[in-house]
Write a structure and sequence with these properties.
The chain is of the alpha/beta class. The protein contains eleven helices and 20 strands.
């Protein structure tokens, strides 16, 4: 039997259960695992599991499921470790339904293993009723949850239309991220985002951040990736690996898209715009020994526990609200509309050019050097 495993998120990896379950499922057949989502990549690298879990492509979980479907696997598992049983089960419901909409036939068993090792851990057979589910439930000490139960408990009452989106399992004081952009903070255990004409206009159970909404722009609320709290909870020791760098000094530009930073692994330097983008990007790039020049304005929302930065990185902290303006001018003058530049030979030359651009805008700034 060919078994496909989709691993989602850093928590299932950091907990050690991703590897345990992959090894456990090998007793049932030939196993192949791939990542679904983005933030788990760093966890895979830190755990030295890139030869076990395929991280070569950036795929949402439903697309990772679809690849195994299209390749004719006999059974597919979704491994997840949500903040709570509610968030994990609702996540699985949405992923499975997105997947079902993408395939021509829903004949391959999809089984979710959620929060293994926890008292509220569960196993959900989304489209089948196989004996293996009961067997795995006993062996892994997981409760069997029916898809109908997930719908009745958490989905049915939230059927409020495409212009509203209920977010489950939140706690007060958490950041709200939509498609990798922080757009507000929760102040309740219940959260509803409200959109009009593809723009988020209101929120129930939190406070919106206007600057974040500007960065987000248009959004399809139904399909948007929404997260609250920290993107990664575990305290980890980052693993640094070597990557092939460009023969010429390659500088790339990253503007408010921290989770897309993996495409810049062949860079010698990355310029990042925004506090959280700089925090996330520098943390990821640390694994590949790539420094950053970050443009921030002190509006940090802290979306990861620790933010590692390569030695010799440089952070410009400009006046509040000027990070975007500086970023636009840097993109125009250094990159001329492209995402990369080969006009410099070292980070000091780039630093001088960036500093001159900021001076020309006539805003106050200070420089922090990472030693």
């Amino acid at each position: 039997m060919r078994i496909g495993i989709v691993v989602h998120g850093p928590n299932i990896i950091d907990s050690g259960y991703a590897l345990k379950l992959i090894d456990f499922l090998k007793s049932y057949g030939d196993v192949k695992a791939r990542l679904g989502g983005t933030m788990g990549r760093t966890a895979v690298i830190d755990a030295s599991l890139e030869d076990t879990i395929d991280i070569s492509r950036k795929l949402v979980p439903s697309d990772s499921l679809k690849i195994f479907h299209d390749d004719g696997f006999d059974m597919i598992f979704l491994l997840n470790y949500g903040k709570s049983d509610v968030t994990g089960q609702v996540f699985g419901y949405k992923v499975y339904n997105h997947y079902a909409d993408k395939v021509s036939s829903d004949d391959i068993p999809i089984i979710q293993i959620e929060r293994p090792g926890e008292t509220d851990g569960s196993i959900i057979a989304w489209n089948n009723d196989l004996e293996i589910v009961g067997e795995l439930s006993e062996k892994l000490n997981l409760s069997v949850v029916k898809p109908e139960e997930v719908y009745e408990r958490h989905i049915k009452c939230d059927d409020v239309g495409l212009d509203k989106r209920v977010v489950h399992g939140v706690s007060p004081g958490e950041n709200i991220m939509v498609n990798s952009v922080v757009i507000g903070k929760t102040d309740s255990h219940q959260l509803v985002l409200i959109a009009k004409d593809n723009h988020i206009v209101d929120i129930v159970g939190g406070e919106l951040k206007p600057h974040g909404l500007e960065k987000l722009g248009e959004v399809d609320l139904e399909s948007a990736i929404i997260k609250t709290g920290l993107l990664r909870h575990a305290k980890v020791t980052p693993r640094v690996i070597s990557t092939d760098k460009s023969d010429k000094f390659k500088v790339t530009f990253l503007d408010h898209a921290g989770e897309d930073v993996y495409q810049f692994m062949d860079s010698n330097l990355v310029i990042t715009v925004g506090d959280d983008t700089t925090l996330i990007s520098s943390d990821i790039l640390y694994r590949f020994d790539i420094p950053v020049i970050g443009i921030t304005d002190g509006d940090l929302d802290r979306v990861v526990e620790d933010g590692f930065k390569v030695k010799n990185s440089i952070i410009f902290e400009v006046e509040r609200g000027f990070d975007d303006i500086c970023g636009q001018n840097i993109k125009k003058e250094i990159f001329r509309g492209k995402r990369e530049s080969y006009d410099f030979s070292n980070i000091d030359e780039v630093k001088l050019k960036v500093e001159q651009i900021i001076k020309d805008i006539n805003c106050k700034y200070k420089i922090n050097y990472i030693n």
